[in-house]
Sequence to fold (301 residues):
Amino acid sequence: MTAPTSYCLWNSNTTEAFARAMRQRVTVRIKCCLPREGKPTDIVMHGRLRNVEGREVLFVPRHAEVQQGKSKAEENTCEFFFSLEQREESGISRMGYQGPGMVLEEVKGEKGDLRSLRLRLARSCAVRQMRRHKRVPWNEDRSRLAGITPLDNPPTTRAELKDLLAQYYASSHPNPLPLINLSAGGACACLPDDISAITLASTYLFFVVPNKAAGSDPPYIFLSKKMGTCKSLCDQGTALRLLFTEELDWFSQSPHLKWDDILATGSERLQACLELYDDTEDEEDEAPAETTSASKSRLTA
Fold:
């Protein structure tokens, strides 16, 4: 490793952000241009930082996807993105960090497989306020179960809940329900037009069992409010944006169903499950609004 004196802004917020990303074991997205079969190739990786010394980091990929088409990037350059949580008086907020970097070394195994990348990341990077809960892009393969039904009144007993779910599966609604994305605070789902047209004042029962949830885990069931619709996101029907307001407490000893208010916090239980998915829609948001430097982010070798 390079001597510490060679690092720029050793104690800056940027290098501290890299260290926090390692300590918090957050998922880091790296898009890099590497030589493959004699030509530069773009590869998108999701993984974690294992070692951080100033701006030099060791990145261990958990998933990698080769991008099709001719690369327009310079060989052995990269871009990084990750988000960190921070506590404030108003609650927990999320900040996104995005910037360029350089690939210093590819570490490969005995069979030539990529094990890790040694990177030097930019001395300054763009920082932006993120959504409170990260959204995970979804498809039918990620749902063991998923569905939604409008409610006149929330169910109060397990028998009433069982009847509601039975009615849903006896209907012609798709199973599992197609979801566009899912977060600890809400979901975006493709619904038949007759359901999505129901008034904004309606309450919806939403339930899902992600494919990475433990087999012994009970379903995630929420009372939800309709936040808006969009026709262009779904091949059939209408995309309905939902905000989770209450979550069913499966562990309550009460003879009646207990619904916990999660409007301000989101579902901690669902959030823990979504951490098992590396990809998020965070890096697909709009361009960053503020930077850690007055000048454009650049890499100093």
Residues 135-276 form one domain.
